[in-house]
Amino acid sequence: MSEALWLVVPAAGRGRRMGAQWPKQYLTLAGKPVMAHTLSRLHQAFPTARLCLCLDSDDALFDPAWVPFADWQRVDGGAERADSVAHALAALAGRAGDNEMVLVHDVARPCVSVDDLVRLYEELRHDTVGGLLAAPVADTMKRDDGAGRVAATELRQGLWHAMTPQGFRYGLLCRALATARRQGLAVTDEASAVEALGLAPRLVAGRRDNLKITHPEDLGLAARILSAQHAEGSVNATASCREKR
Ligand SMILES: Nc1ccn([C@@H]2O[C@H](COP(=O)(O)OP(=O)(O)OP(=O)(O)O)[C@@H](O)[C@H]2O)c(=O)n1
Ligand SMILES: C[C@](O)(CO)[C@H](O)COP(=O)(O)O
């Protein structure tokens, strides 16, 4: 039986924290737009996947030439990231089967490695819940007192940075996001919505350099990461992953 893979890329953010002239997905990184890097990494890992790209309805900067996938569609984003993802899932109704895998990946994470993408997918295919790329917290964690001073040092054991992609079966992800919305939960990632159903998504350890471009200094950092990955050579050189037959 064929096993389809769906990719949802939320790219309808405004990049307010970046404070640039254009949303950060359109800023130039190593010679091309951030979005083009992100879609290229996903395509290298999953050349036959089907893509749903969430864009702001007023977006005048998007260029379809950046999309390397043969099967893709554009949907309007929503007010929040979770709304954009929900719009994508609604657009896939009737196409995606309940048991088919959906990987959601921020357009703002162009440095994700192909190896991590493929490994994540392979691990999640065999998981009954689904999960996400993540990295264990490496620093000592402080909680502030609201006035710029330390109130407490928190235990870092067991804490992880949540990254993307986050992958779940289509039916479960639809149910999780719809339930979160009904309950008025403001979820910042797919895993939180699934957790709210009482399920425990799998944490798949990924590279720490899967940076989400968020603040102005992140663009230069991302350029240095891409350059270091290029020099490293192995990051994107290994197997791509086709849909499993
Ligand atoms: N309404 C929204 C908000 C965010 N996103 C996407 O969700 C990802 C993560 O969001 P974030 O880093 O917060 O991006 P922005 O919303 O663009 O940034 P900011 O919060 O600083 O405005 C990004 O790929 C962004 O484009 C989206 O598709 N729809
Ligand atoms: C999904 C996410 O990338 C996980 O780290 C993140 O939560 C999205 O960014 P936001 O700043 O919370 O919208």
UniProtKB/TrEMBL annotation:
<dbReference type="Pfam" id="PF01128">
    <property type="entry name" value="IspD"/>
</dbReference>
<dbReference type="InterPro" id="IPR018294">
    <property type="entry name" value="ISPD_synthase_CS"/>
</dbReference>
<comment type="pathway">
    <text>Isoprenoid biosynthesis; isopentenyl diphosphate biosynthesis via DXP pathway; isopentenyl diphosphate from 1-deoxy-D-xylulose 5-phosphate: step 2/6.</text>
</comment>
<feature type="site" description="Transition state stabilizer">
    <location>
        <position position="17"/>
    </location>
</feature>
<dbReference type="GO" id="GO:0050518">
    <property type="term" value="F:2-C-methyl-D-erythritol 4-phosphate cytidylyltransferase activity"/>
</dbReference>
<protein>
    <recommendedName>
        <fullName>2-C-methyl-D-erythritol 4-phosphate cytidylyltransferase</fullName>
        <ecNumber>2.7.7.60</ecNumber>
    </recommendedName>
</protein>
<dbReference type="GO" id="GO:0019288">
    <property type="term" value="P:isopentenyl diphosphate biosynthetic process, methylerythritol 4-phosphate pathway"/>
</dbReference>
<feature type="site" description="Positions MEP for the nucleophilic attack">
    <location>
        <position position="212"/>
    </location>
</feature>
<keyword id="KW-0414">Isoprene biosynthesis</keyword>
<dbReference type="InterPro" id="IPR034683">
    <property type="entry name" value="IspD/TarI"/>
</dbReference>
<feature type="site" description="Positions MEP for the nucleophilic attack">
    <location>
        <position position="156"/>
    </location>
</feature>
<comment type="function">
    <text>Catalyzes the formation of 4-diphosphocytidyl-2-C-methyl-D-erythritol from CTP and 2-C-methyl-D-erythritol 4-phosphate (MEP).</text>
</comment>
<keyword id="KW-0548">Nucleotidyltransferase</keyword>
<keyword id="KW-0808">Transferase</keyword>
<dbReference type="InterPro" id="IPR050088">
    <property type="entry name" value="IspD/TarI_cytidylyltransf_bact"/>
</dbReference>
<dbReference type="InterPro" id="IPR029044">
    <property type="entry name" value="Nucleotide-diphossugar_trans"/>
</dbReference>
<comment type="similarity">
    <text>Belongs to the IspD/TarI cytidylyltransferase family. IspD subfamily.</text>
</comment>
<dbReference type="InterPro" id="IPR001228">
    <property type="entry name" value="IspD"/>
</dbReference>
<feature type="site" description="Transition state stabilizer">
    <location>
        <position position="24"/>
    </location>
</feature>
